[in-house]
Amino acid sequence: MKKTLFICGFTILQLASVAPAAIVIDADWTVNTAIPDGNPVGITTSQTFQNLIGGPITSVDVQLDISGGYNGDLYGYLVLQNTNGNTATEILLNRVGTSPSNPFGSSGSGFDVTLSDSGTVNGSIHWATGIPPGTWLPDSANTLNGTFGGLTANGTWTLFLADMSGGGGTSILQNWGLDVSVAAVPEPSFGSFIVIGTLGVFIARRFAIMKSQAQPQRAGDGAKKQIPVGVYPNLHCANRRSNDGYTGRASSAAAGSRFAAGCSPSPE
Prior knowledge:
This protein is an alpha+beta fold. The chain folds into two domains: 20-182, Sandwich (Jelly Rolls), CATH 2.60.120.260; 229-268, no CATH class. The chain has helices at 2-16, 144-148, 190-214; strands spanning 17-18, 23-35, 39-49, 57-67, 74-82, 87-94, 110-115, 135-136, 155-163, 171-182, 187-188. Strand 5 (74-82) and strand 6 (87-94) form a beta hairpin. Helix 1 packs antiparallel against helix 3 (190-214). The chain is elongated and about 90 Å long. Mean pLDDT is 78; it is low at 2-17 and 222-268.
């Protein structure tokens, strides 16, 4: 019965819950900061999310708007240091277009792109040429969701960019942004409060019935106490010397009876 009640309650509560769509945090920042030419120290820009409502991260997209410079010189990554003490790093750019046959990489001068795990049509940003638009995969062996998924988004997000080779001009980070999706926490609907209340009353009544059925019945609660054969305390006899024993006379009318005439057993 207890198991049945538990399963029933769990099922009803599951049906009564409302699971909204994932929450998307869309943030953009304008920085207009030059990336020093040929300087691996580079630049960093950080933004902090606090008190975000929702569950763990389910997806991350990064927007980069860079003008000027030489795309084949750029290296960059994104770091999350969250409020749970976790640190995760994803490489975004790794000298676009470089290869053994092209050590200088792409000669394009800037781009306005989104780096996302959904950028499978264009493929990795590493192989982009010219000034690429649209959505691309990050220049990394790992996915963005594989790096950040399951973590809390609350914390500090830091973008690092550097120009790794001198010459080709100066790149400028105009804007960058994040689209972070987090799992929504299901909230009970109005109807679920009625269901929960009704279920609570039902369970309480069932436990009360089960408890009453489990209690032993005491003597005097509607049933006479049985006196073992051969033990006759407090017999009520017509003729007796004391209340401790039996003194009635035998009677032919009572032949075969365990009690003398005028005597009858009585509960204590």
